[in-house]
Structure formats: structure tokens, C-alpha cells
Design goal:
This protein is α+β, with helices and mostly antiparallel strands and 412 residues long. Helices cover 45% and strands 7% of the residues. It has 13 helices and eight strands. The chain has helices at residues 2-20, 93-107, 126-138, 142-154, 181-197, 205-219, 254-263, 268-288, 315-326, 329-344, 357-366, 371-382, 391-404; strands spanning 57-59, 62-64, 108-110, 116-120, 123-125, 165-167, 221-224, 227-230. The strands form three sheets. Strands 3-4-5-6 form a four-stranded antiparallel sheet. Helix 11 runs antiparallel to helix 12. The protein starts with a helix and ends in an 8-residue tail after the last helix.
């Protein structure tokens, strides 16, 4: 009798293991980055009118395809990292694929030498390259990721950081424009995500991320009145810029800083100091501006008469990412303050300074500390008549949707 029971238990245990190993299970979409994601065949949606995330993009003699395995989730099958923020059930994998395909069709172009660019009114910004890298790694689009990375690397300034502005498909070289810190932070984060997404790649994403992080520390940070702050770029701002001492709050990325401290132990104290300084300055801004933040300020947080407008509108996204990844109470307080401002001004979408996703979507993410509030904000956002055709608004829309879906991984 005992032997028969043991045999039955063994059979049951084997069946459970087989079910857990099924890559087509309903839990597959809940995964994040995984070692084998992205390797395999291709598929395309011929005649669809919009470029599929699996469809190749051609131009200038180059062709790119994301190489996702047919039938697999673009987000992999590994268990998700801890996610502290609310998630939207309405932002499905199919919706993200559709949004990403539309973004590529509208804003991504290939150059003759094989690099790729994100175009804004005929020009290329390091910010757009960085946003594109964050999107493409999240969507398992390695060839697009590598094409954008190539353009970044071909247009470095004297400090090894990408020049902030170039012409479309500009020839490789240093045009002297200087770097922009938000782009460099986003590229570093994208490289870390790529090292987790494609760990067997020969591109050396992790080493590139560490090298870039060290350059940011060296050239794009200052110590001002004992506080480590982020300069707007490697040639401007901070307290070392005597003529124009400044910081830009929407560049602060406290969630990234904690991840960088985890991966780059030799730099950890700097990144954690930047993280603390970010929240100190955020508190100063919100106390002065009825819970909003300015476009820019003096390095000590002092008022320079700037308001909450484009660029500043990204700040709730930056903080919401930190809350989602870490659950930091300072992030939650910041988000609650933003939501308080939104409620005092008619809720969403009415409260937004502009009726586009750059403003509304960021406010939505600030509501992520409470699921019911977040769901209400999401309905207001996705049901609104929005002006999202321009590069900035349209690109932030897809980035925000990734966070809303819980599909923007810290990798730790």
C-alpha cells in the first residue's frame, strides 16, 4: 500500500513539473527579462500598413528585425522582479506591440551605414536615441537596439558621451554640441536591461553600461554645498558652471541610481548620494510649487522662475519608476503630492497643462501608489482626445504604457 501511494505521488509531482515548464502557459506574459528571450525566428504582418514589432525596417541599404521567437511573449518567461506600483490590466501585450509598431513607423529611420535614428523634425536628439533604446530592449527588438546604439557611439563628444543634437544620419564624429545627462542615464539603463535580456550577446552591453556610468559620474555630476547633484550635461549646469548654474529635475532618475549602485560597486556611493539629493530637491520644489516641480532650478533648489512645462512633465515618470522598483516611501510621498495637485485641478485628463500623453501619462503614473486611483487615471488617459503625433509626446506615450503595464524592468 505504501509503495503504491509513493508511486502515485511521484507521478503527480512529475505532472506538476511538466506543467510548470510549459512555455505556452497563461503565466508567460507575466514574465520579465530572461536569458534566452529574443533568440529565434521572425514573423511579419505583411500588408498591415503599420510596421510590426517583428517586421523588418529597411532603408539606406540596411534591414532590421527584432528576432523574437514566433509564438513567444516579447517580454520573456522569467518570473517578474518585485513591482510595487499598480498595474493596468487594459495595457495588454497586444496593445504594447501595436503601440510600438506605430511608434517605429512614425519616428524610426535607417541610415545608409547601418545605424538607426529617432527623428524629431528632421533632427536627431541623444534623448530620442535613448528613448528608442529603452523601448526596443523592452520589446525584444535587438537589431533596432543595436542600430540606435551604433548611432550613439558614432557621435561621441570629447568626454565619450553622445552629442545632444545632430542632423539626421549625420556622418560619424564630434560636432561639438555637448552631451545631455538624461539621455546618457537612459542609455546606461537600456544597456543594463540589454545585458539581462541578451546575456549571451557579444556586444558587451554590461561593460558598455559601466563605462558610460563612470563618464556620467565624472563629467555630469557636481558637489554643490555638500550635495552631489546631476548637471544637465557635460558642458553646462551644476555649480561648476559659474555663468549658468542650474539643474533640471526631470533628468533626475532615482530608480536608475539604485540599480547603478547595485551593478557598479566602485561607483555605489556616488549613485546613492545622487539618489538622496534628488529627493531632497524634489521636496524643496514641491513645497514651493504646490506639489509640482520646475523645468529647472539653481543647484541648491532655489527658484529661477521656471515653471512646470515640457521636460518638467517627465518628472512623475522618473519617480514612479523608482516607486515601482523599490517602493521607496519618498517616491510614494512625491506621487501622492502630484496626485493631490491633479485632484485639486479637476482630475484627469482636465488637470493636464496640455492634452497629450507627455503630461497626462506622467500624471497617471503618479497615481500608481493606489490601484483604484490608478485605474481611474488610466481610463481618463486612454479615453481622451490626445495630440500625440509629435516625436516627444508619442515616444513618452509608449514608455509610460510600458510602466503602466509593469513591463519596465530594473533587472534586479
Amino acid at each position: 500500500m505504501t509503495i503504491r501511494v509513493l508511486l502515485l505521488l511521484c507521478a503527480l509531482f512529475s505532472a506538476i513539473l511538466a506543467g510548470c515548464a510549459d512555455p505556452g502557459s497563461a503565466d508567460a506574459f507575466d514574465g520579465e527579462f530572461t536569458s534566452g528571450a529574443g533568440a529565434g525566428g521572425k514573423r511579419s504582418n505583411a500588408g498591415s500598413g503599420a510596421v510590426s514589432p517583428h517586421e523588418s525596417i529597411s532603408g539606406g541599404g540596411a534591414s532590421y528585425s527584432n528576432g523574437a521567437t514566433a509564438g513567444s511573449s516579447v517580454f520573456g518567461t522569467a518570473p517578474p522582479v518585485t513591482w510595487n506600483s499598480a498595474k493596468s490590466a487594459t495595457v495588454t501585450e497586444a496593445r504594447l506591440q501595436e503601440e510600438y509598431a506605430g511608434w517605429k513607423a512614425a519616428h524610426l529611420e535607417a541610415c545608409a551605414n547601418g545605424s538607426l535614428v529617432v527623428v524629431d523634425n528632421g533632427a536627431v536628439r541623444s534623448q530620442g536615441i535613448a528613448f528608442g533604446m529603452l523601448l526596443s530592449v523592452a520589446m525584444t527588438d535587438q537589431s533596432v537596439f543595436d542600430g540606435l546604439l551604433r548611432f550613439y557611439q558614432e557621435h561621441l563628444d570629447k568626454n565619450g558621451l553622445m552629442n545632444a543634437l545632430t542632423a539626421k544620419c549625420e556622418a560619424p564624429g564630434n560636432n561639438g554640441a555637448g552631451a545631455q545627462a538624461d539621455a546618457d542615464l537612459d542609455v546606461t539603463m537600456a544597456l543594463l536591461q540589454a545585458s539581462s535580456r541578451w546575456p549571451n550577446a557579444t556586444a558587451g552591453y554590461l561593460n558598455k553600461a559601466e563605462s558610460l556610468a563612470s563618464k556620467i559620474v565624472q563629467f555630469e555630476t557636481d558637489i554643490c554645498d555638500g550635495r552631489r547633484i546631476l548637471r544637465p550635461g557635460d558642458a553646462s549646469g551644476g555649480c561648476s558652471d559659474v555663468e549658468h548654474p542650474s539643474v533640471k529635475p526631470s533628468y533626475f532618475a532615482p530608480g536608475y541610481y539604485k540599480v547603478f549602485a547595485h551593478y557598479f560597486s566602485a561607483q555605489a556611493s556616488t549613485w546613492l548620494a545622487l539618489r538622496d539629493a534628488s529627493y531632497q530637491l524634489f521636496a524643496i520644489y514641491q513645497a514651493r510649487m504646490n506639489n509640482l516641480v520646475p523645468y529647472s532650478s539653481r543647484p541648491d533648489g532655489g527658484d529661477d522662475q521656471s515653471q512646470y512645462w515640457y521636460e518638467a512633465c517627465r518628472t512623475p515618470w522618473r519617480v514612479a519608476v523608482d516607486y515601482a522598483w523599490t517602493g521607496d516611501t519618498r517616491a510614494r510621498t512625491f506621487m501622492q503630492n502630484i496626485s493631490s495637485w491633479v485632484e485639486q485641478h479637476g482630475g484627469l485628463p482636465a488637470a493636464a497643462q496640455q492634452q497629450n500623453s507627455a503630461f497626462i501619462g506622467a500624471f497617471v503614473l503618479a497615481g500608481g501608489y493606489d490601484q483604484a486611483k490608478f485605474d481611474g487615471y488610466m481610463s481618463g488617459w486612454l479615453g481622451a482626445d490626445l495630440s500625440d503625433a509629435p516625436y516627444y509626446q508619442g515616444t513618452l506615450r509608449v514608455l509610460y504604457l510600458l510602466v503602466a503595464a509593469g513591463k519596465f524592468s530594473s533587472t534586479i
